[in-house]
Amino acid sequence: MTDRKNKLITLEEYIIQAQNRFPGATGELSQLLRDIGLAAKIISREVNKAGITNILGEDGSTNVHGESVKKLDLFADKQLISALNRSDITCMVISEENDGIVELDNDGGKYIVYLDPLDGSSNIDVNVSVGSIFSIYMRENTDSKTLSKEDALQPGVKQVAAGYVLYGSSTLMAYTTGLGVSVFTLDPSIGEFILCDDDLQIPDFGTIYSVNEGSYQSWDLGLKKYVKYCQVEEPETQRPYKARYIGSMVADVHRTLITGGIFIYPNSSQYPSGKLRLMYECNPLSFLIEQAGGMAIDGNGRILEIKPEAIHQRTPIYIGSRQNVLKVKEFLDEYAEERVKASLS
Ligand code: AFP
User: Fold this and answer.
1) What is the DSSP letter of 10?
2) Which of 58, 72, 141, 273 is deepest in the core (most CB within 10 A)?
């Protein structure tokens, strides 16, 4: 935890202090993070009173992935995009809720922002934690006036910042600009995010595994064997591990970040390329986890090194404590041949 325990530092102050450490900084990225912080407060307020204002439930449409859209998804999407449109910094937004790119009014904007405005939204109706995820890139091609999807197709290693806001028992924001992970908790009485940790580290090993075991039959053999390994009784290796699965990636990964362990959303016969989205779920959370000392892979290599081909691309993901991710990789590698044989048969 931060050694500044007795001194309350707000998100705004922290961002300004961090910016002052870089003499050449223009302050634009800081402004962008502050804009996201503002939208997060508005979304948090709405999530907390969702039942009262009858904003719960589906709006009747489906998003680009054919999933039913909850009213709060749309609200969160609108708030984040209009917050980003306030300052002339962001040229383009790609959001789970929009099929194509959303061009903002700022041709000269330097930044491209990916958003999952309300991850885990099928949990809203049952009062379970949801979150907003963001991922920020620099626009590389500044010569051309026109923007295209290609401008947005950069690998995760090129993120300049990423983070999430978790609307849970309290509202919390975690972000990284590549210099460790900072975490803030929203104090609703003063409406400010207060710094609670400025260098969060994930335990190197943890005893929780998190995966939707209902899909067990559709997994590759390596993952089946790994999950059986987690369940074996062997006190010397602290097994059996505990199973925990919320069904909101942002909440499952947040727990993993704090307690250690592993979160998995694999490829399966139902989802041959995995279900979760590379650009606005897996990349930002992988950046954070790596910055905290953990690992994130797609079963073969680092998530952050995947070259994206589409803005709504999916990927399998194995993310969490270093030792746990290395262990599952051993199992996946050991049974990789069976996987190839199965795909050929
Ligand atoms: P929703 O946003 O539609 O609730 O999806 C949430 C999510 O993308 C991710 O946050 C969860 O980890 C994952 O889906 C849960 O998927 P399963 O229901 O297939 O386990």
Assistant:
1) B
2) 72
Task: Report which protein residue has its CA nearest ligand 1's atom 1.
Answer: 120
Cα of 249 from ligand 1 centre, angstroms:
6
- Six-digit token string for 55: 């904003």
Q: How far is the CA of 248 from the centre of ligand 1 (A)?
A: 6
Q: What's the CA gap between 246 and 48, in Å, rounded?
A: 18
CA 240 to chain CA mean position, Å: 28
SS3 182: strand
122 CB within 6 A, ligand 1: yes
What is the position in ligand 1's atom list of the atom closest to the CA of 96? 2
Q: Which two tokens stand for residue 64?
A: 């680009």
Cis (ω within 30 of 0) for the bond into 240? yes
Angle between helices 336-344 and 221-231 (to 10 degrees): 140
Residue with the two structure tokens 């961090």: 18
Pocket test for ligand 1, best of 58, 250, 275, 313 (most atoms within 8 A of CB): 275
Q: Helix crossing, 28-48 with 11-20: angle to 10°?
A: 170
pLDDT more than 90, % of the chain: 78
Return the residue whose CA atom lies nearest to atom 19 of ligand 1: 212
Which is nearest to 255 in space by CA: 149, 129, 139?
129
Which alpha helices (DSSP H) does 189-321 contain, by range? Answer: 221-231, 249-259, 283-291
Q: Are 213 and 224 in contact (CB under 8 A)?
A: no
Is the C-beta atom of 207 inside 6 A of ligand 1?
no
Task: Report the candidate in 211, 206, 224 with the shortest Cα–Cα distance to residue 339.
Answer: 224
- Tell whether pTM > 0.85: yes
- Rounded to 5 degrees, what are φ and ψ at 250? -60, -40
What is the SS3 assignment for 265-292? ECCCCCCCCCCCEHHHHHHHHHHHHHHC
Closest CA to 290 of 333, 257, 328, 324: 257
Kindly report, residue by residue over 25-77, the tens digit of the pLDDT.
889 999 999 999 999 999 999 998 876 766 666 777 787 777 776 789 999 99
Would the CA dihedral through 313, 79, 86, 99 be positive or negative?
Answer: positive
